[in-house]
Amino acid sequence: MASAPRLGTDIAWSSASTGTVIERMLASQPQVAAQLAAAYDEAWKAVDPVLLELVRLRIAMLLGCAAELAERTPAAVGAGLDEAMVSDLASWSTSPRFGARERACLAYVEQWLIDVASMTDADAAAVCDVLGGDGLAAFSAALLVIEQRQRLRLAWQQIFGEEHST
Amino acid sequence: MTTRARRLPSGATAPRPLNAALGEWQAAVVCLSSVDPITTELVRLRCANYHDCGT
Questions:
Q1: What tens digit of pLDDT does each residue of B13-46 get?
Q2: Cα separation of A11 and B7, whole Å?
Q3: Contact across the interface for B7 and A138, Cβ inside 8 Å
Q4: How far away is chain A from the Cα of B37, in angstroms, using its nearest Cα?
Q5: Residue A84: which of A100, A75, A96 has the closest Cα?
Q6: What is the C-alpha separation between A35 and B25, in angstroms, rounded?
Q7: pTM score, two decimals?
């Protein structure tokens, strides 16, 4: 009896977009892939796309997701994403290109990513001050989607990626 | 048990389409049947603990 093809062999892991990876890995559960794609689309409508792009790229830097780092989201480019800002993203806390809004949001993102249970009231209040209450709620929901997509991709890549195939 | 102040102002919410899409996705994930329900529940509870989620 022939065995089923190994998952992920049809994916160019180093260059495939995260959307493609999710679609292929969830090919047998297309409704789950479609619902994650829908949540991702809504995230870009709910938050300023330039701010969310900085968040997506900072997460990619911290998690080591090269494919995400190489991409630019069209909505962010269309809204005026500044590549000089992207170049300074690793030094957002000191670079003059980043204002109070971006700093509060990126500090929140980093705490969320590294140890979400240790998020302080002050971390949340800082984002609330610059985005408002609804903005904090939208930002947190969008951040959840962005983070989970990248973690999912990286976990699959570790398990099924080319360098691990036998 | 410690109590914590509410971090979102009363009534603050993410846009309805984003909340709905997130809810539908998470519900679909929990309904997947490839992993047995005990393991799924252990993972869910571990995540709730990690995220400090009392609900």
A1: 999 999 999 999 988 888 888 888 898 889 889 9
A2: 41
A3: no
A4: 18
A5: A96
A6: 5
A7: 0.91
